[in-house]
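Run: sequence + pyridoxal-5'-phosphate -> complex structure.
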Amino acid sequence: MIIQKTSNSRIGDFDPNNIGFGAAFIDHMIICEYENGKWGDVKLMPYGPLPFTPAMMGVNYGQACFEGMKAYKDKDGEVYLFRPEKNFERINKSAKRLAMPEITEEMFIDGLKALVDVDRAWIPYGEGKSLYLRPLIFATEEALKARISNKYMFAIVATPVQSYYTEPVSVKISDYYSRAASGGVGNAKAAGNYAAAFYPTKLANEEGYEQIIWTDDATHEYFEESGTMNVFVRINDTIYTPPTSDKILDGVTRDSFIQLAKKRGIDIKVEPIEVAKVVEAHKNGELKEVWGVGTAVVTTAFKALGYKDEKLVLPILSDEESFAISLKKNLVDIQTNQSEDPFGWRVKVEKHILETV
Ligand SMILES: *Cc1c(COP(=O)(O)O)cnc(C)c1O
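>> structure
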């Protein structure tokens, strides 16, 4: 690894008690360039802008994918990543689907560890606080022919975050727009998937809904995801979540929730969720909870589901009654080293890694 540390740290201007989401970037970043059929050296360097041209293929044709993950600090100042090998596997799955070169485990894991270690002073400690890490790969070749790019950049940037408790939100069950299509790129973390979701989400916002529950593109009769999160539905004491597919992203938080629920002996079924079944359960008073899960906020609980002209209002459960809240606590306790780690999910970031990479 090529190491070029900043002589001009901005940490003095950073207030860990006043953090937004994604506003301040840590002192360093990782970059690595691909050309002539191979990846070059990984470089740790001061964070900042890079020179690019509008003729860069990534911005013209959307050959770009990313990951979202976090580093957590415990009360003793030790720092942990959470299941980083899952994100490594997924960024390569995304890269492959977008005809981009895969990266090595060393580039990804050592890059993350080096960056997190060198800027560990930027990682805030406390409830809801963490360092959000954004690895990404994008096409950098200067060319306008619509074809596979010959040049790419792999980069990792990071920003301290605070996820506040958010009130339950209202979501709209989509009966027209789709996030993903059969045979498409829905299970890749493709940058363009987000761009395509912004407009329908804006329309839902105008109708008073914070998010959309995406349904299948063919019939709009089955739940797929909620916003940029995986979705869980609780009917009586059984939790349902749809199986992953080429339209449903294989979320790390989703998989962790499933394993935690099983370990607690909660009845959890990974099977398609029919909108009609949810509407029927609501009518019978059996629909207890619906929530989304993802790395950024772990859980977003829903208070109402809009469906066609109806609004299905969900019951208000106490923290003790809610599976969403107790599973979130189980997960966060593992992530932040406040509980045992029975699954071996935490990966400690050792100090002074730069001396060894
Ligand atoms: C990133 C993402 C998720 C959540 O994945 P996590 O690994 O849990 O953060 C869910 N759905 C979509 C569409 C996503 O892009």
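>> summary
Helices lie at 57-61, 84-97, 105-118, 191-206, 252-263, 275-283, 323-335. The two ends are 6 Å apart (CA to CA).
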